Hints:
- By secondary structure, the chain is an alpha/beta fold.
- Helix content is 41%, strand content 19%.
- The protein is elongated.
Amino acid sequence: MQSFAQNWAMDWNSLKIFLAIATEGSLNGAAKALDINHSTVFRRLNRFEKELGGRLFERLHEGYQLTVMGEELLAHAREIEEKFFDLERHVVGQDLQPRGKIKITAPNNIAYRYLSRYLKDFRLRYPEIEVDVLASNLEFNMANRQADIAVRATPAPPDYLVGRLVRKIGWSVYSGAQHDHCAPTSLETLSDYPLIGAVGNMANLPGFVWLERHHAEQIVIRCDDLVSMSYFAAEGNGLAFLPDDQLRPKLKRL
């Protein structure tokens, strides 16, 4: 175990992913067992192997097979897993109520539309947990505990975090509800209408990249925030590409 001792920089989440792959024999099986994204399992395994300085699995056509190094780690990982299970059984046996403070960061609109509803139920279930909500479109540093949980609209969480898909949100073209009497019926007719585009980091989203490439001349206003876009669209300034969580009475989804 000298190689592991020299590179011991692992955590329980890394060991859980290793054990799940060893048990299921594939990344897909491990992802289903842990209820996380396939891409998260892939990134965490690669990072774990890099930290340890060697490969834990041979990537074979029929699945993932443990290397000698992986076999050596497996025995120790099983012991650690059993100790965690013992601890969990002890805690459950004591019927301890979860308590403490957690900090959740989410983009403004997700915080307004979703967290306000779901945290009400969470507080009823866990009254001893105090919640700080950091509603912001800025990125928070998770490594130094600026936030414990980040709700993000992305298919690819950073390599050093464990991501779990909560739900998918579709996108649509929107206009103001009172300004849709001659609304387009397809993307091909967007060139006949004023459009609202994006600026700043928002401009890197695929929908706005497409909009700039095909309809830059029709863009009359650019915003760096989805909520701002929705309000400009609601007042009839132009059509906007928006995620469907932005829908409200003054907007019409085309």
